[in-house]
Amino acid sequence: MIQAIGLTTRRRRRHGAAPLDDVSFTAAPGQVTGLLGPAGAGKTTVLRMLVGLERGRGAGLFDGLPYARLRRPAREVGVLLPGPACPPGLRARTHIRLLATAVGVTAERAQEVVELVGLAHVVDRRPRDFSPGMDRRLALAAALLGDPRCVLLDDPAAGLDPPAAAWLRSFLRALAAQGRTVLVSGRDPGEMAAVADHVVVLDGGRLVADEPVDEYRRGRMRREVVVRTPRARGLAELLADAGCEVLHCGRGRVVVAGMDPAGVGEIAFRHGMPVHELADRVVARSADRVRRAVRPPLAADDPAGLTVPMTPAVGGTRELPAVHVADPDPDPHAGPDLDVGPDLDVGPDLDV
């Protein structure tokens, strides 16, 4: 279990992060707890305070003890913070072997984590040649060397392509299924709703939500459909007649709620309306001021280069996370499981 109790800082932190104001929450074992908020909300400050890297008032406890009083902190708490996963000149194999020695674990454990994160085929390469997804896997391997009960990850999905993000989601769910306490931060409400069991929302250094993910979805998120078409006003009228709520119409763009993308596309097709982009997005309601996330578009013909590849559905009850796409035409209405089981297959032996 991870507990944040009254975390408070006096002044604005590095990179413009807001000072924390009495932030308290609990991350339970066997669950993924998401720490959600826009840039500067204080997410990284919270994680750094929990492990003693930031000064301030309050306490961070791991199974009832502060980080400084843990007997073997590297074997009880795994941490992934921003920064390179490995010095660029070292090979991944050498890096993991050195860390294993420092943590005090065996070569067999180093072998397990390399296989666990799927890096066996590149372990002799230097991380400067790694993709962002491979670099993140190496950082995860380092965090898990000590087989920790608690895992803290600061925005691990940032910069990942859809396949890498899907792998990360399944991996975090598997860690939680083993009974570990997983605390992961992020900016994307759709991504967080897809992976977390419980969501803690920060805004401006203050706690604005602390609730199960189902309640978060119902009360703080909504799904919208965005259409780009040269006949925006005509399409908006047709969609309104069909019962949609038109949230925005202008500059070749319509945003509606109350119908899925397939239904919107059928109406446009029936009436000969050209569609240049069709996407559905998950947005946080404006009161939370959490940045919106946009799912992959469903229509072709994207001259502005705004689309990303479609991602197949993953799991049964969990929704795919939204993928952020830059939006050059903001509208006033936009608000800010894979079940892999408790045991992970580590594959064949690897000589580390």
What does this structure look like?
By secondary structure, the protein is of the alpha/beta class. It has a domain at 2-218: Rossmann fold (3-Layer(aba) Sandwich), CATH 3.40.50.300. It is built from ten helices and 15 strands. The chain has helices at residues 43-50, 73-76, 92-103, 107-116, 132-143, 162-177, 189-195, 213-220, 232-241, 261-270, and strands at 2-8, 23-27, 32-36, 57-62, 65-66, 77-80, 150-153, 181-186, 198-203, 206-212, 221-228, 245-250, 253-257, 277-284, 293-294. The protein has a six-stranded mixed sheet, sandwiched between helices. A five-stranded antiparallel sheet has the order 12-13-11-14-15. A four-stranded antiparallel sheet has the order 2-1-4-5, covered by helices on one side. Strand 14 (277-284) and strand 15 (293-294) form a beta hairpin. The protein is globular, with a radius of gyration of 22 Å. The two termini are 32 Å apart. Residues 287-352 have low confidence and may be disordered. Keywords: ATP-binding, Nucleotide-binding, Transport. Residues 326-336 have a biased composition (Basic and acidic residues).
Question: Can you describe this structure in just a few lines?
Answer:
Belongs to the ABC transporter superfamily. This protein is of the alpha/beta class.
